[in-house]
Amino acid sequence: MAKPCRCVVFDCDGVLVDSVSSWKTLHDGFGTDNSQNLSQFIAGKITDVEFMRSDIAMWKAIREPIHKDELFRMYSGISLMEGARETVKELQDEGVYVAIVSAGVDLFVSSIAAMLKVDDWIANGFEFDENGFLTDDGVCRLHASGKGDVITRLMEIHGFSPEEIVSVGDSEMDLSMMVEGSKFIGFNPSRDSSIKAFTDANVPIVMEKDLSKILDFIKLPSSEGN
Ligand SMILES: [Mg+2]
User: Fold this and answer.
1) How far away, in angstroms, is 65 Cα from ligand 1 center?
2) Is 37 helix (H, G, I), strand (E, B) or coil?
3) Which of 37, 64, 201, 218 has the fewest CB atoms within 10 Å of its CB?
């Protein structure tokens, strides 16, 4: 019989929050468009570090300096995904460890992590000077296409086996969370290419924008012996 789940790892943008990208939210705020860089990044032609640096340069061309508070305010209109709060709570009530692994913006992801009271989180983001103004380089703590490294670290720290881990993501890059032997659920696929990648990977896909639907695909500890 399959082992019950002990750890669920969520992507943030498009999964825990109803917004495709915490980077795009900032572009919308500044009126800039990074779609060209995004395509280049997805195609592997520029690195995460180059991508972040070019984003920051675009914003600074509009306004310089940029204060942390100003960036934070741009997220005020973003809401949690339907079902996010209940789902995280139900998992934690079952003793399941809940983490966020996001290549999104740390400033934003940390506030979501606090709101949902998750057990751990990691994200990319920014560096600010001593007065709270944005510096030129981003901080790359994980690679969007290499999220498996973080999952492996979680397994080492907490002693989870791969079969006890479920990852949830909305993009093809999130499939990198599916370390061998673990499970993955595609949720609210962000692009046609994401649906295709999830289908090719033969993982369950939840199309409905209600995070609680993922629970249908997770074997909770309390269901043991039923
Ligand atoms: Mg996402």
Assistant:
1) 29
2) helix
3) 64
For 72, list phi and psi in degrees, rounded to 5. -60, -40
Q: In angstroms, what CA-CA distances link 41 with 51, 64, 76? A: 7, 25, 27
- Ligand 1 centroid distance, CA of 47 (Å): 18
Cα 187 to averaged position of ligand 1 atoms, centre (Å): 9
Give the pLDDT score at 1: 62
User: pLDDT tens across 78-129, in order?
Assistant: 999 999 999 999 999 999 999 999 999 999 999 999 999 999 999 999 999 9
Per-residue model confidence (pLDDT) at position 23: 93
CA 130 / ligand 1 centre spacing (Å): 31
Segment 61-73 mean pLDDT: 97
Residue 41 Cα to ligand 1 midpoint, Å, equals 15
- Whether 61 is covered by a domain: the verdict is no
Q: Ligand 1 centre from 171 Cα, in Å?
A: 6
Q: Which of 140, 189, 193, 147 is nearest to 167 (CA)?
A: 147
Global pTM reads: 0.95
* Secondary structure (DSSP) of 171-198: SGGGGGG--TT-EEEEES-SSHHHHHHH
Q: How many domains does the chain have?
A: 1
Q: How far is the CA of 217 from the centre of ligand 1 (A)?
A: 19
| Domain contains 186 | yes
Tell me whether residue 106 is in a domain.
yes
CATH of the domain at 215: 3.40.50.1000
Q: What separation in Å is there between the alpha carbon of 17 and the centre of ligand 1?
A: 9
